[in-house]
Structures are given as structure tokens and as C-alpha cells.
Amino acid sequence: MRTTLFGSLAVDDIDHLVTTSKILVLPANTTLFLKGAPGDRLYIVIKGVVRISSISEDGRETTLNLMSSGQVFGEIAAMDGGERTADATTLDAVELLVIERRDLLVFLNNNPQCCIRMLAACSERLRWISELLEDAYYLELPTRLAKRLHLLAQTFGQQSDDGIRISIRLSQKDIANHMNVTRESINKWLRIWGKKGFVSVEQGHIVIRDLSGLLAFRP
User: Fold this and answer.
1) For the chain (length 219 residues), average pLDDT per consecutive 10?
2) Closest CA relative to residue 165, chosen from 204, 138, 131
């Protein structure tokens, strides 16, 4: 496992970090924490995928992010000790490295360079959220969906003879939750793009057959 947050640390520092952390193994569809829960620990994904989501007052669920191997989540609440800002649920069987807040703060105090990287990681997350909000306001759904499929391909893509295969199974409802739109609208554009040869759906996996065509498409 590699993570940009701790990747530049010396071996001794990494060993110390590991000794103060623990490994958590969980099956699919397990809730790690809910929005509003205390931010008492930080998580690093070793294996599997964790879904970060939020539920509106009328019961609609929106997937905010999917965290895979090497990615860090829960860092904002772990840094300030505040409440969780979203829910975290395992999408499949996962293995996580868990660092308690008290150990994290001691470690960051002794490793100022890593503290700077943590601040940069939080800033990057905020920039990403800002971009999502701008996309939701200014871009039409097909463009937003194409960008999201591209992001999923960058994170979970596997090159195949047919194109880029997104390795995790995503139903149309999953993608709709990811985009905060209806399942019918996702189905519409996947069918249109399927006829154009941009994408296909094979055994629950989306395959991007023509990435340049998909990103250049305008309705």
C-alpha cells in the first residue's frame, strides 16, 4: 500500500506509525461511521473500497466519494476533533489501517513535514468539493457524467482489449447516487453512449471504449 500522505516518511517513522495503529478487517456493507459521530480516528485503505455518502432530510442518498487502496479518509474530523461530515460504508470487503486521533496528533507534532502534507491533503479535498459544486451548477448532466466516469476510470480502471474497464461493480442506481440524479437519466445516457460506441456495460462493470469521444461529447 502506498499513500501520498505518508509516502515521503523515513522507514523508522513509518514503523513508528504502524506500531501505534491497528488493522481493521470488515465485510461488505458495514457502516464505519455516520454523519455526526465523533471524529476520533483516521483511516487508510489497504484493500477494498469505502463509500463516503450523505443522506438528505427527504431520504435521498448521495455518494460523495469512493476511497480505494492508499487513500485516506476521516482526516478532517480527526484533525479538529469535530463531528463526521458524512457516512462511511464498506462497498466490499476491506482492510483498513486505523490511527487514533491522539496518536495522530502526537505523530504530526513530531513530524512537521507530514503535518504540512496533511494540510495540503485537506486543501485538495476542499478544492475537489468546490469543483463538484461548480459542475453541479454549471455543467449539463452528460458532461458531468462523462467527467465522473473518467474519474472512476482513473481510480478503478483496468486496461482491457475492449477499453478501460472500471473494476468495481456500479449499478445505474449507484451511479445516480454518485451524481445526485435519477437512475432513469443515467440509463438514458448510458444507452445513448452505448449506441455511439463510447461505453458498454458488461456483467455489472462499465467499460469505456472511447474515452476521447466520451469527454468530447456534447448533447
Assistant:
1) 54 69 94 92 92 83 86 86 92 93 87 79 80 86 93 91 90 86 94 96 92 91
2) 204
